[in-house]
Design goal:
By secondary structure, the protein is α/β, with parallel strands linked by helices. The chain is built from six helices and twelve strands. Strands 6-7-8-9-10-11-12 form a seven-stranded mixed β-sheet, with helices on one face.
Length: about 240
Amino acid sequence: MRERVRARRLGGLVIVVATVVVGLAAWVATYTTIFEVREVLIRGERHTTETAVASQAQVAGVNLFHLDLAAVEHRLEADPWIADAIVRRDLPATLVIDITEREPVAVDDLGEVVAADGTVLPFADVGGLPTIRPTTGTLAIDHRTSSAVAIASLPPSLQSRVGSVLALAAGALVLELRDGVTVTYGEPVELETKGIVLKAVLAWARREGERPVTIDVAVPQAPTATLEDGTTFTPGF
């Protein structure tokens, strides 16, 4: 009886030792060159380049199996062009990087291109972008951001019609359209609603054959338009 108990214990110990040895061997194997990063697959780049993204990731020759993916994402998102990065392993030797880039929406008073969230984008093409300018002094960062957000929140068909955004000292915004129409936007709130209402007012004016000189959507529930003869009224739509 004692011999059978001893044999069972010995057998159990052998199984435990074997499991540990196998596990240790598998763990050691993850540090071999089999899992060294040999290919970086990058998707979503348009303004940046694959070379720049790979360099920012800093993963050349590292062990893919033990790579800290969150750290790589953090390094990538430190690039002002990259709004979001998702990194995953494709074992044994490929790292897949999916990025979402920021889009240029305007140029500030210093000639810097800014994205929809106010981030300054280096080496961006300024051609055709609306400008953001203050009434006096230098443009405050929060005013630059709110102006950029206002532009980005407009319906796509209207974004190209904006020539400039004037940021008033108190933070209110005025949009100057390329065809000469001035739009009072007020405080940077309800921006999506204001964009929709502005589009509706312009569509109404086109249908009615009217040309507004100014439009006020500061209170989007009660927009007004002023025509060239000074007549001011609430459009019907």
